[in-house]
Amino acid sequence: MKIYTKTGDKGTTSLVGGDRAEKHDLRVWAYGTIDEVTSSIGLARAYVKEKEISEKLLKIQKTLFEVGAELASAGTDYYKRRIEDQDITFLEETIDKLDGLKPSYNGFIVPGGTIESAHLDVARTIVRRAERYISELKNYYEISDNLMKYTNRLSDGLYAMARYFDYKDIMEKVEENARKFNQNRSVVNNSQSEEIDEIMINRMVIDRETAKHIAEKCVQKSYEIGVPMVICVTDYSGNITLLERMDDSLLASIEIAMKKAYTAAALKAPTHELRDASLPAGELYGINTVDKIITFGGGFPLKVNGTIVGAIGVSGGTVEEDMKVAQFGVKAFEEGLTNGVTK
């Protein structure tokens, strides 16, 4: 059988069931645009190496054949609903799963972060165009509500997939840049022994008593400057050892203090030093999109012999006030080591 049939030479095409329609018929615009979506998703899928997402995209492509068939049968005796509730549920579950893997982001996204996300964003915009045609088509023909719901969810689903690849790419770059950032910050002092006092490090644990001592000193400093604070002390992994909230401190400061301490422990640097590095030209560009990361002052690592053993995060006042109280906590920790108060 030859590919060309010549039946469309006069500007008409066949609908489901054999009825003929002009090629500029709104139904043809609608299912033709869905055909574009299917092809654009195929292009995106060619670049996707993750098996699970590739399989989801393939399933979507197969469902889109049903969408196209429903549109191509609109207004004929062969029209029937082809999109089921489970098709919509599949997209909603996919969106929820992918959305849960990344931090929330408020603002506009500039497409082109990765090859995968760029192609998925193109597919998403074509879906939106198809939606516009289908919305108009409903004024003239019977179109199922599920078909409208499916195309609407599909644009959201493709958006969620695109953002997943962008976030994954940012995380990989951030992790690599964070390693370089910390390597560049390391200063080798050849006059000191390269051996770490393992006994001292193993003995030094940010236990509750140590954390309590640091927090008490921070509270004392907070009273001096007249600002109620939230103080968070963590171990070297960023796990909370103690969280102290002073009366009348802001509720929002609880989460911010925890994030400051976590950031200082995870990136092994005071949080105020990360601001410039997180700007577009910086080594850690994109890191402020990562959940739990703070890039303004108030978080400091706690060290013994140059090794991170914990961290402190303070929030409640201005950045300068937070830093002043946090630094007082660091000083209390260091003096406690000398005086035997911390252990």
From TrEMBL:
Pfam families: Cob_adeno_trans, HbpS-like. Residues 3-164 form the Cobalamin adenosyltransferase-like domain. Pathway: Cofactor biosynthesis; adenosylcobalamin biosynthesis; adenosylcobalamin from cob(II)yrinate a,c-diamide: step 2/7. GO terms for molecular function: ATP binding; corrinoid adenosyltransferase activity. Its EC number is 2.5.1.17. Keywords: ATP-binding, Cobalamin biosynthesis, Nucleotide-binding, Transferase. It catalyses: 2 cob(II)alamin + reduced [electron-transfer flavoprotein] + 2 ATP = 2 adenosylcob(III)alamin + 2 triphosphate + oxidized [electron-transfer flavoprotein] + 3 H(+); 2 cob(II)yrinate a,c diamide + reduced [electron-transfer flavoprotein] + 2 ATP = 2 adenosylcob(III)yrinate a,c-diamide + 2 triphosphate + oxidized [electron-transfer flavoprotein] + 3 H(+). It is an enzyme of class 2 (transferase). Transmembrane segments: none annotated. The keyword Cytoplasm does not apply. Coiled coil: none annotated. One of its GO terms (biological process) is cobalamin biosynthetic process. Belongs to the Cob(I)alamin adenosyltransferase family. This is Corrinoid adenosyltransferase. It comes from Clostridium magnum DSM 2767.
